[in-house]
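Good morning C.,

I know you're traveling, so I'll keep this short. The sequence:
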Amino acid sequence: MSSSNFHDVESVEQFKDLMGADLERTSLLSFWAPWAEPCKQMNEVVKELSKKYESVLVLSIEAENLSDIAESFDVEAVPTFVLLRGHTLLKRVTGADANGLTSAVEQYARTTPQALSKTDQAPAAPPTDVGAAAAVPAAEVKKTETEEELNARMKGLMNQSKVVVFMKGVPDAPRCGFSRQTVAILREQGVEFTSFDILTDEDVRQGMKKLNDWPTFPQIIINGELFGGLDILKESIETGEFEGVKAEL
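The tokens, ready to paste straight into the viewer:
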């Protein structure tokens, strides 16, 4: 039996209601997917933690079904765990790290946190490698593009082939479940495509959201224009519309 502080999130509205009920409460967001084997073990760990630390609000979120929430927390792999207090990011744990997650929950369930960041927006990931702090990010040393130059570069990328997928990772090694599903479906449909890994270029990642007025990834580009994302692809196949799209490629 689940403890009263444990909730399976089924909608964005439910998520907002639960998170907004008490902004002083520590929350643990557990992002998982049914196809990822490590999630099965970690889901049990999360349930046990919810029983042990009843003061912590524990939200279990199936990342692919609630992609808006997953995207807002920049979830790129599952399992991913985010500890919050209100809009304050306390800790981020990625992967099947049961000891690391347990230690983090124990620390922040009992102490007043030292905030890593505070914002009215969805929190970003804290540094995971202290040694990396000394490195100069490539974005700081490369020439800054104007918006016009960036748009021109993105248009070029969108027209590199008839079908281009802007995704997290590469087709043979996707970095999120949405990208993995998109690649698998396009291959099943016999569609030839090229891809661009948005994790390698933050300017393109943010610019594509604005250029196409589409906030999530993957983005499927057909003949230089946005076709849609994973949900649109699935829906067009179910309705038979995608057969007509393929006929024009």
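Safe travels,
E.
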